[in-house]
Design a protein that fits this description.
- Helices cover about 70% and strands about 0% of the residues.
- Helix 1 runs antiparallel to helix 3, helix 1 packs across helix 5 and helix 3 packs across helix 4.
- It is globular.
Amino acid sequence: MKIRVTIARCLLGFIYLVFGLDYFFHFIPYQPLHTGKPGALVAGLKGTGYIYPMMKTIQILGGLSLLFDRYAPFSAVVLFPISLNVLLFHTILVPSGWLMGVTLIVPNVFLGYAYRKYYRGLFTAKPES
């Protein structure tokens, strides 16, 4: 189990680090521009001026956290909504990119399962005050 966790953690961390850094440094040569609804969504998020840079910064920090195995359970939880949105974006709006969504959500869900003992306190039905 430890080897599988390490592989999932490093895979997810590497993907998020690379794509997060690419937003700022543009080193991935080919990225198709989206049109229609996907293009409108991306344009709207970029048009706010803060959502995309914030999201990419979270991806970079989360990717580094996973790669260096520091606060990895926290980073897996923080990155999960991004993984889920990438999956939904690439299966609903751009179905040809479904593999990228699956490549992010599977290791993220696996890490959530592997780190479940660290999340027990989050799933308290009625916390004590």
